[in-house]
Batch of 2 targets.
Target 1
Amino acid sequence: MTTVIDSKAADHADQANECTWWRQATVYQIYPRSFADANGDGIGDLVGITSRVPYLAKLGVNAVWLSPFYPSALADGGYDVDDYRNVDPKIGTLDDFDEMVSALHAANIKLIVDIVPNHSSDRHEWFQQALAAGRGSAERDRYIFREGLGENGELPPSDWVSMFGGPAWTRVDDGQWYLHLFASEQPDFNWKNRDVHEDFLTTLRFWSDRGVDGFRVDVAHGCAKELPEVLPTQAELDATPTTDGQHPIWDRNEVHDIYTEWREVLNEYDPPRIAVAEAWVASAERRARYASPTELGQAFNFDLLEADFDAGSFLEIVSTNLAEAKTAGSSTTWVFSNHDVVRHATRYGLPPRHGRDVKQGTEWLLSGGTTPELDVTTGLRRARAASLFMLGLPGSAYLYQGEELGLGEVADIPAEEHQDPAFFRNPGVDPGRDGCRVPLPWTREGVSFGFGSGEAHLPQPAWFGSVSVEAEEGDPASTLNLYRRALELRDDLQTAEELEWVEADAPDVLHFRRPNGWEVVTNFGTEPVALPAGTVLVSSGPLAGDTLPGETTVWLKA
Ligand code: NOJ
């Protein structure tokens, strides 16, 4: 009898866990074309990912977030999708996808795929039909077409600038213009059109049926648009608040109708599929709407990513976001690096505010002979301390491939080898995002440091060998082994989503206790401070006797 009750209890616990795994998960972002190349063509592929599942399992991540792997001309690194329900032949097949899912699941790793609802690629079947069908057609209504200004409509409908620089409107052969908030190869969908809704619901079902556990929703805050007959100028648009849900483009209130509809589909599955919004919005309160359990369930919080390495800023961000998540009924997300920003090991080696803003090209001053100079050692020391701080927090941590190696940004990619539209649309201003997308080094040597048997699609610098998996594997002090140890311990930490701040002796120190009694202490300053009592479980750098050196985090057990 006892046995029966126990096993039922265990079943319930498993079921509960199946539904809530995402709340405190460690999610590892894979940018597929730069992770592992199995067929030697220089481009990472799905078979390559499958071959590295043992690596992911040993690292100890709970889930993978896979950036777009759909057929694409790569005008924007795959965020220009030709076909939402297929795999890019350059990186695999649907069978490869199924095998990858099985291998991940066999290793107890969930899979979240990227979905891109704001825009398709200009090669998408629907956009091609829209071009062929002409003005006023049902096909054209799936996108946002307008007549131009000027005597013959030769001027764009407005002076809007795209997110990558350059005009946000492009003219087609019959004279109409279409809107693209990003590259001209990325026409924006018209979400007032019912076909668009239905097609995305079909896509959600397609991948959910294939076993994916969730979705990362690209530009979630941009899909609903209300464009008046007479369009505002860019200056007027910039001056319009994004706080009340009435901005013509960003974070409109009715965008939530889309995600309420999505939630119904995601809940058709057992366990329900999860979703996390990429939503750049004005306030924590506006973000919480996307994270509501009746919508996507979770939303990225980029606050730590945007902050300097500073105790006061981190304290404020952590406190605010934990409180906000509680109100929203969601759990917090944390992230320092992704495929859009300068890697944090490099950001932290630059003076504050350099290399940290996604759009302000002038802030992206990096190494490679430019000023200010990069301090590689400080950058890595701080990155390790910051990551260990983050991994001790309640909520889910999103890691970007390579950060577990302490990888820095590649700042000296020759102009002709760049791929990112941001680089080309802002000549000489924006170094673009290729520097954080360089294929991973797996071995100390070899044509592409073990990424594949051919040359990598973006050039890898000579120093990559020294931060390869092979180089770090056997070094107990390596960043790779630091992440492994922290992730191994993290499961024990992630019980209740709570923390209690402990008063620290110095203003540059943050100290908190988790419900299991473990303590996390970070010294953000440069001078050593006294190490609080307890057994050291893991530290981001060497400890000196009973002191905690500067820019170091330690986990302690009382
Ligand atoms: C956000 C993605 O993270 C970024 O890489 C992409 O360029 C834009 N959305 C447009 O899809």
Target 2
Amino acid sequence: MTGRQRFSSACQCRSVDRPPVWLMRQAGRALPEYRRLKETYSFVELVQTPELAVEVTLQPVRRFGFDAAILFSDILVVPEAMGQPYGFRDTGGVVMDFAVSSAADIARLSVAQVVERLSYVDQSLRMLRKELGEQTALIGFSGSPWTLATFMMEGGSAEKFTRALALFRDDRKAYYALAEKLTEGIVAYLRMQIAAGVDALQLFDSHGGHLSAAEFPEASARWLREIIARIGAPASGPAAHASAALKAAGPEAGAPPVIVFSLGTHRNWDDLVGTGANVLGVDWQYSLAEARQAVPERVALQGNLAPALLTEATPEDVAREATQLLVAMRGRPGYIFNLGHGVPPNARLENIAALVETVRSFK
Ligand code: CP3
């Protein structure tokens, strides 16, 4: 099996020779070849220049032989394309040109130009699809409406993301206006990525865990479900391609599988399954064996090695912990090996190599 076949099969819970492996934030600061490019180009230049975005996307694939590549970009490009530009502080952290703080600010955000303003993503993905060929799968992504709203309302990184939560609690109508607009922009963006040939789409709901279990369904899961329904992701499970519902789905039929990664929300399994995701990411704080019990077999699971192991442990520790996860998931058709969150910037390269080798040689 090629990496592309292995990854696509696992997303649809079909059998594989071994679990596919890729890592969230596999490109970036942990790699010396990325740090070298950063001496010449800013992050935003890397993201917006297709040749450079393609190069940075391919760097971790060349070095480690992952089964899938994830486009090098950021979730903040969608707010930017809707009229709220971002950059980075020298001391670290995201800073946006302004914070969204009123109904008027929400009204000013515009979906109309999202696809045009993000045409560099379209170009990057088309180049990547060609470069990767049959060997390696290509993953596109977007932030979730809830997670984007948290950044947009703080105007960047914050110690506590309280403003979006306050809007959701105190002015539900205004929160829905923002979430609807984001949903609209995200759907347009993802349709463009589908047309460019991605093999799967991941929705990052990295701030889902800031919500209570009672708030999560309306503040986040509902919009994830709407996005997935509108892009026409295949019904989950191995028989999906034969389903009449999919055949009747119209021009979007044949849309790629969707992965939902919602950090810190695993007390909401029913809501997560209810989004219609083909794959659910599991964060490192949760037991993968318990996730296996909680989630129906037609939905694949992805995760969940603790990212801190890549910085603090030895390659032997990493191999042992990775093996435990592989054993816990043995015999489950839909399983994709990953971390429980992104690769830390100070990850040790020998630890990443040990992780990949452990998955690749697992019998
Ligand atoms: O996974 C990948 O390799 C693909 C690239 C990718 C990046 N960001 C590159 C990046 C993806 C998928 C993201 C998603 C993203 N961006 C998320 C969701 C995933 C998660 O980690 O929870 C979030 C919350 C963001 C917003 C964001 N972008 C933050 C909080 C930061 C860190 C700011 C800082 O100074 O540390 C970024 C910057 C960013 N995005 C970097 C990279 C490689 C570092 C930029 C640099 O090189 O200095």
